[in-house]
Amino acid sequence: MIKHFRTFNQAIVFIMALFLVSCSGGNQKKQPAAASPVQISANTVAVNDESQKLLKYLEETGDYVNGRNFPSLIKASAVNKELGSNIHIIDLRDPKAFAKGHIKGAVNVEFSKIPDYFTNVIKPFGYSKIVMVCYAGQIASYTTSLLRLMGYGNVYALRWGMSGWNKDFAKDSWLAAVSDKFENQLELTENQKAPLSDFPLMNTGKTTGEEIMAARFKSVFAEGYADAFTSAEKVFEQPKNFYTINYERKDKYDAGHIPGAVRYKPNGTLGIVSEMESIPSGKEVDVYCGTGHNSGFVTAYLRLFGYNAKTLMYGNNAFMHKTMVEKKEKLSWLPFTEAEIDNLSYVKN
Predict the structure, then answer these.
(1) Of 5-14, 94-103, 162-171, 248-257, which range is least confident?
(2) Which of 8, 54, 60, 314 is exposed most, by the fewest CB atoms within 10 A?
(3) Cis peptide leading into residue 71 (ω within 30°)
(4) Cα dihedral sign for 132, 322, 248, 263?
C-alpha cells in the first residue's frame, strides 16, 4: 500500500513539473537574452559602450549592411511599371523642383521630416515598396540606408534620381556633373589604413541598442543632409585634409584612385570592428564609389555611429568619366550617359 502511495506521489510531482515547464514556455513571450558584448579580438581596441550596443543591435536585427539587399536601389523603368499599384513614392527635392516636374503620385517630403512621416503620417508596411527620389540618387541612397537600418525593409532608392527618369532633369544634374577634370591626378599607389582607434562617442545617454538606434536615427535626420556630401573639387584640392575611402573592388582601385585614398572592401567593412576602428573618428571621412549611390549607403551607416563621413557626389563619374567609358566592359564601370535615361512621362503642379 505504502509502495503504491509513493509511486502515486512521484507521478503527481512529475506531472506538476511538466505542467510548470509547459506554462513557462507556452503562451508567454520569450524574454530576450541579455545582449552579449561585441567580440573584441587581439587586433582591435576597446569599443565604447554605446557603439558596442548599437553594433550588437544592428547585427541582431538583420545585419542589413552585409546582406544581399545592400544597397537597395531600383531602376526608373521598374518603378514606372508599378505606378498605380501598391507603391509609394517620396520625393525629397525642394518644393520648387518638385513643382516643375515629378513622378505621378509622388509626395514631396522634406528630409528632416521623414521620421515623423513614417511614424505618424503613413503606415509604411502597408505598401509593397516605398521609393525615395531625389535629384541624382545620392540623397535618396543616404535616406534609404537610414530607413533600412531602422527596420523599414520595403524602402528603395531610385537609381540616378530624377536624372534617370527624364532628360529634362538630367541636363542640370548628372549630364552636367560628369567630368574628366582630375584624371591626370589619379594615384596608383596602394595606401594603408589608419591606426586603430575607438569608435566616435555618440553620447545619446540611452541604455539599450534599440534606444540608441532610435536616438541616432532622429538625430541624423534632424541634422539635414547638406553636411553629408562633398565634391571632387574639394577632395582633390587638399587630399591630405581628409581620410578618403574608396569603396570599390580591388581592380577598380588599382586602375587609379584619389591621392591618399584607402580601399575598403564592399560587404567586408561595415559592422566589422577591426575595419571600422581603422576609420579615424576625429577626421573628415570622404567616401566614394563609381556613382555615389553605394557610398551614400555607407555614409549613412558611418554617420549613424557618429563619424564625420561624407559622400563624394557622382563618385568616379565626377573626375574620371572618360576612363570609365573606355574601360566599361573590362572593369564593369557604370558611367552615366544618356543611355541611362528612360525619358518617362512626369507631371507638374
Answers:
(1) 5-14
(2) 8
(3) yes
(4) negative
Taking the complete model, does pTM exceed 0.70, yes or no? yes
The pLDDT of 289-315, averaged and rounded, is: 98
The set of cell numbers assigned to 274 is 577591426
What Cα–Cα distance (Å) separates residue 71 from each residue in 124, 167, 188, 218, 348?
19, 25, 27, 21, 30
Q: What is the pLDDT of residues 233-278, one digit of tens each?
A: 999 999 999 999 999 999 999 999 999 999 999 999 999 999 999 9
Q: Is residue 226 pLDDT above 50, yes or no?
A: yes
User: Sign (positive/negative) of CA torsion 298, 58, 214, 161?
Assistant: positive
Q: Residue type at 69?
A: N
**Residue ranges of the alpha helices (H) in the chain?**
2-25, 49-60, 76-82, 95-100, 114-116, 138-149, 167-170, 174-177, 209-222, 232-237, 250-254, 273-276, 293-304, 321-326, 328-331
Is the per-residue pLDDT at 58 higher than 80? yes
- Where exactly does CATH 3.40.250.10 map onto the chain? 49-177, 183-331
Please state, in angstroms and rounded to a whole number, the distance separating the CA atoms of residues 141 and 65: 13
CATH architecture type of domain 183-331: 3-Layer(aba) Sandwich (3.40)
How confident is the model over 94-149, as pLDDT tens digits? Answer: 999 999 999 999 999 999 999 999 999 999 999 999 999 999 999 999 999 999 99
What is residue 89's DSSP assignment? Answer: E
Radius of gyration (C-alpha) of the chain in whole angstroms: 25
Q: Residue 301 and residue 299: Cα distance in Å, rounded?
A: 5
CATH number of 49-177: 3.40.250.10
Question: C-alpha 342: how far from its chain's center?
Answer: 25
